[in-house]
Specification:
The complex is a heterotrimer of chains A (about 190), B (about 1000) and C (about 110). Chain A is an alpha+beta fold and about 190 residues long. Chain A has helices spanning about 40-50, 85-95, 120-125, 170-180; strands at about 10-15, 20, 25-30, 60, 65-70, 75-80, 100-105, 110-115, 140-145, 150-155, 160-165. Chain C has a 4-stranded antiparallel β-sheet, with helices on one face. In chain C, strands 1-2 form a two-stranded antiparallel ribbon. The radius of gyration of chain C is 15 Å and the shape is globular. The longest helix of chain C is centred in the C-terminal third of the chain and has 10 residues, at about 90-100. Classes of the chains: A alpha+beta (about 190), B alpha+beta (about 1000), C alpha+beta (about 110). Chains in contact: A-B, A-C, B-C.
Amino acid sequence: MSDPVTALKGLKNTGGFASISEVGPTGMITLRGDLSAKPVIKAAVAASGVTMPEQGRIGSEGNHAMAWMSPDELLILCAYGDVHDRLAALNKKLSGQHTLAVNVSDARAMFRVRGAHAREVIAKVAPVDMHPDAFTPGMFRRTRFAQVPAAFWMPEPDVVQVICFRSVARYMYDLLGMAAQSRSEVGYFRR
Amino acid sequence: MSTRLATPGRLIDKAAPVSFTFNGKQLRGYKGDTLASALLANDQMLMGRSFKYHRPRGVVASGAEEPNGLVNLGSEGRFEPNQRVTTTELFEGLEASSQNHWPSLEFDVGAINAQLSRFLPAGFYYKMFMYPRSFWEHVYEPIIRASAGLGKAPKARDVDTYEHFYTFCDVLIVGGGVAGMQAALTAGKAGARVILLEQTDHWGGRAPVDGGRIDGAPVDDYVKETLNALRSMDNVEMRLRTMGAGVYDHGYALGYERLTDHAPEAAGPRHRLWRIRAAQIITATGAIERPLSFAGNDIPGVMLASAVRDYVVNYGVSVGDRTVVVTNNDNAYLTAIALKHAGLDVPVILDARVLPSDLGLIERAKALGIRVLMGHAIATVKGGKRVTGVSICAQAGEGAVLEEIQCDAVAMSGGWSPVVHLWSHCGGKLRWDTAHACFSPDVDNPPKGSDGMGFVTPAGAASGMFALDDVLHDAHAAAEGVITSLDMKLPKDVTSPIAERREESPMAPVWMMPQGASVKLREKTWLDYQNDVKVSDVRLAAQEGFVSVEHAKRYTTLGMATDQGKLSNINGLATLAGALDADIPTVGTTTFRPPYQPISLGAIGGEARGDIFQPIRRTPMQDWHEANGAVFEPVGRWRRPYAFTRGLESTHDAVMREVKNTREKLGLLDASTLGKIIVKGPDAGKFLDMMYTNMMSTLKPGKCRYGLMCSENGFLIDDGVVARIDEDTWLCHTTTGGAESIHAHMEEWLQTEWWDWNVYVANVTEQYAQIAVVGPNARTALERLGGMDLSKEALGFMDWADGTLGGFKVRIFRISFSGELSYEIAIDAGHGQALWDSLLAVGADLGAMPYGTECLHILRAEKGFIMIGDETDGTVIPQDLGLNWAISKKKEDYLGKRAQARSHMTDPSRWKLVGLETVDGSTLPDGAYATGEGTNANGQQNMIGRVTSTYHSPTLDRGIAMGLVLNAPDRMGEVLRFPGTDGKIYEAKIVDPVFYDKEGSKQNV
Amino acid sequence: MLTIHCPNCGVTAEETEFHAHGEAHLKRFGPGSSEDDFESYLFMRKNPKGVHFERWRHQYGCGKWFHVARCTTTLEIFGSYSAQTTEPPKEIINHIENRRPDWNATEAPK
């Protein structure tokens, strides 16, 4: 089989006050089920390698992460090449449980926004309070970025990771690039 | 004449000269000037012409309320009309030109309108342009259009960028005068997240100009110290050049930041729209001085007293050498005193009041030797393009002239009106303040937020407090109240500063000067300078029955100009009240609507311009399509290839080629946009039986079935092929436009109606690239890739299989939307392009060619397959389309079943789908209607059918169409007449909708 | 522009993340139902001046549906609650009665 390509083949924009780069192929599994059921939690934790996230949060461990998407949905992130094995293992553990686990690795695009003012890039396009006291690492927020749905979190200070649908990867890249255009720092979250 | 004084100006830097042009003339100002102060310093009092009469207009104000000083600014991609000179900061190279005149500002032909003014009263347009009706299109409308509008619309594309910024805070404070600063200081000390916005480029507002002492020191010292204190607070954000534009529901507010208007060449966005969510808002928006209504009050040189003072104190500019001050309150005396201190002449102060004693400022003015005439008024101002003098009369009389005085400027003050706009935007009520003759916020009736509690508090002059000490105390108290409502605590030692109090005499409301002014004087007394509305116009409106303030406004256009009546509204409604013999509060105000000042369309649009005007969805093969001649058409937010043109080939020829090639050889279609939804669970079969009109629960794993979806209204909303993956999993294909809406539709029913059913749904549309491999050579091509048995026996029509094809992990559906042998191959999107390349390579000698959506449409139309959106329009049920075979008769229920039993749905006269074949082989116009006998109730010709899809079929070399026709099944073979918009009548025979391969032998091989 | 609380994911956000879908607590009538019942289910909607119970979806967020009790004149929001119920919960009713003493709780959907 060919090498998988992301929507923008790893495009990067360093011309602005924060850099925008498309993240390479990443394994993603959507798991829907009763998130309070022990077998579901056990399977999800085993498949993701991280602890169960609480409402509105993401847990991560190296390249692995698991995000709370809704009361009955999780998003598991792992290496792209691992996704089929992990999905198979997950489905095996969950046999007999009413759940739905699907590979969505190729359905998404992921971007990293990096820079001292990275929070401002997000605050220009998403109706979310990006104040450091309000949006803290470990939080996972689904919202809209201008005109498209997106989700984001902060894996480390000054870095925001953004997930959107693959078909709008170009729009997202251009949008974030415009929001980060040079000399457009707001200087609002400087403290 | 107006000129620059030797005295310094608070806001300008005389060491930093700035050159600019006005109407091409090279002029000089200083850093810190506004365009208004710089023009005045160059004796350019005449700045524009009024809208209706083209009267000469000079600047009246010094801030946002300015109605007259509007200019064209910039050029090319930065050209913008109607820019206020008073809010435009001067910068090196600024280019301004006056507008609304021809041929020149000094000599304007349109000023003839002023001579005709008695023939152009209020409502002139409504009265004049009524009859005859036939004149509208060719006479009236062109005249009105030619004379409408101020300034010129920009022609070049805007070269700047704009952006939004979402932010949240505990307290938003609008207005950076002493009230706003004090409120910010108090709220900041309590630890609240505070945002303080100021529309100008400097802090402190007008208090430093008006003087006084705070905690024993000059106001400027207080401003400096408070600024330092605020800057040291991490929780306080301060923005200059940012106007609080509007207050909306639930604490939403807009801030309009002008980043580069004062430095157009600077990098970065021009405007930033702050989209603020505030728990509490304090409006410290100050007050605006009112003009007085006397004859000739629109002659250049007649200005607000506060503006005259601002130009002297802030910019070191004198408006005139001899300035007559006319007032009904103490405040204007400050202007006389400031002018005197600057060494200028004030021949007289005309005070309409009669007071028992001279207190405070009056005493000071008299001590400076200024002549003060109590109970006096201006009868009329003399002058044309510039004030030359005034005649004086008694305020009490009808205007008999007592004395004439030469002067070149008049400073007027009719009292002050709090800026209540932001308070009122979201429903804050007003009360009439008799003492100050103004509307001020009724603090017991504030705008209410999501919890039903008030969320706006006015502070300082904006709440009707005019004395400096009251302003500061009110601002502190406003902040304290807001802090308490946020359940926060103010440290005990935080108190309000104390300002020294002036002794003041009460103002007296004066709405007409002199009180008994004759009609002749009233016809020269302006209320709205920009729109040329006079006292006589408002009185005429009242006389003609426009007694509601909202009606009078629209009839006279009072307050409808770009300044939205900031100066004219109160005077106008007082005049209306006078004419109606009613109280001002009972007449009421017109509605205050955001934005406070015009804001740029660019700021509203934000980043949504050019490539990111809207999201365009792209398939994994989009780059290839763009590089290979694709002509695109929008399908939802996708751009799908309509056809792939080659060389100089026309799009039509490309489509014809693609159809022939696909029917005869091999076509490839990018079908990735089709919706793909996984439905899984013990109740998934039961659920899909509700979603689709046909039975999906009985489908066997490994098989596909075409299905129809209806809304609960019974109307067809989507169709597609459903594949059963395993015992409790189905994969539903939707139309390209339907993926998100059908996914949402399924979730809606699962979450809100059948929440006890065990079903999970996932939209996996974008996980897969999907390629339709279509045509007689399809199987051969795929077999060359190898790895899967694709024989008729192994993978029959409407079967699907997972496997590895040429090394690619794929899922193949043996389905056909073209009537040809056809496979749809789904593959993880990240490998889509690689598979597309492989298919083109192995199919090269088999005639493999990509085809677009128009070819797809023709292929399906030749087979009589319906298309959602063509054959359906939200009023069509499956039964109309002859799709009864896809409607289960066994099922007790499905969405739409009950609705389809309604009498209108079962009416035999519903139009039904048929094929249409033109008699002469031409192609029917899309959407054309078939005409029948007789007329309907409205006297229109009866219609008996319409075309839903129409194409030229290269396969049959003739026009083919489908349409919905009355009593269609009984009319087979009948010829219908379809008038086209080209004047031609098309004749078409009613035939079976399947034009090609009726037996289905081609797809089933 | 309203601020809405989603009870499903705990997020309070501006209206642009959500989508309103009209009256809540409709009872579905299917095949076999009378013309009157079906008509009222399909077409008849309350349009009160004041307290209203509505369906909303957190379209750009968790994607879940929920209900909102809201005043259509002042835009005051009395509360959000689960979509998986046929009537408003007691605490919502109590809160509305508190805020709107003139409101008659018998008008609430049952």
